């Protein structure tokens, strides 16, 4: 018996069918276009702006099932989940009309820039600053690293910091920076990672933006920032669970058919039990992901933050173990291009590292959930 509603089960079945049609050797642009046409890319966005009017729960189902079919779309984590959510919740009417319909139908994409060379994803140490220009607009200066898909995105939602006039302290704010903005430079980072979406280092050299480039309230930066970071963690979990399921399915199929002695190798507990354990761990991670998505969709940002971090942690660990065990099940074949598992060895680690490391998740849980003291 599934704990999911019939509507969610139907969505899962439909997206899985789309994934099977495209498969592991898919044309990314064709898949993106069809996913958009079927309403999956914008399923979480408001219906009045061309979206599906649903939530993060539905978007995470779509990404998970595409990943399980071997054709995940990384920009689903970034464009509709992070940027689309932030704009839908906090953007001006003009920003919503400008961006949300295109994000929903796949014709426009937006990247997200928070990570910095010396700050990682620590929003309290971000050094990219935004100051008021003489014309009433904004001037952004700083650097970002490991920003996905900037070259294929129409704009990047940049996390900068502005000075609080009352306290003099810097506070985070979000700005829409067009791809062709003067002073906005990108350099590809040479990654040993098989992904359509490339990683970039960004330099913002006195990038001048109009006043309406600011998203939301200048004094509500952290609230608005975490409105995007929590969906990012949930969707990273979906990405990881889908990848783990894909690897596990290949290993199970192999273990059923591969025969060295008189029975298939899957009949031996040394093969069967680790695969069963991997399946259990992926299912447990999915339950936490579903909890996080539900809490977020219900508007409980605090509880969603805790659950989203736990979901991301659990999914990252489960994915790595599932991929590793799947490769070991196939032996030498697990490293061949024919079976497509070797490339996942590196890709699976992304869910452990990004968008926040597992160590930072443990810090969050130990301090925020358990109330343990912070180290000096």
Please characterize this protein's 3D structure.
With 376 residues, the protein is an alpha+beta fold. It has helices at 6-22, 28-37, 56-68, 75-90, 93-105, 221-257, 269-297, 301-330, 342-353, 358-369; strands spanning 110-113, 129-132, 138-148, 155-163, 170-178, 184-188, 199-209, 214-215. Strands 1-4-5-8 form a 4-stranded mixed beta sheet, covered by helices on one side. Strands 2-3-7-6 form a 4-stranded antiparallel beta sheet, with no helix packed on it. α8 (301-330) packs antiparallel against α10 (358-369).
Helix content: 40-55%
**Global Rg:** 21 Å
Distance between the termini: 49 Å
Low-confidence stretches: none
Count of alpha/pi helices: 10
Strands of the widest sheet, in order across it, are: 1-4-5-8
Summarize the SSE layout with pairings.
Elements: H1 6-22, H2 28-37, H3 56-68, H4 75-90, H5 93-105, E1 110-113, E2 129-132, E3 138-148, E4 155-163, E5 170-178, E6 184-188, E7 199-209, E8 214-215, H6 221-257, H7 269-297, H8 301-330, H9 342-353, H10 358-369
Parallel strand pairs: 1-4
Antiparallel strand pairs: 2-3, 3-7, 4-5, 5-8, 6-7
Helix pairs in contact: 1-3, 3-6, 4-5, 4-6, 6-7, 6-8, 7-8, 8-9, 8-10
Task: Provide a quick synopsis of the model.
Helix content is 50%, strand content 15%. With 376 residues, it is α+β, with helices and mostly antiparallel strands. A hairpin with a 5-residue loop joins strand 2 (129-132) and strand 3.
Provide the descriptors you would attach to this structure in a database record.
8 strands, four-stranded mixed beta sheet, alpha+beta, 376 residues, globular, four-stranded antiparallel beta sheet
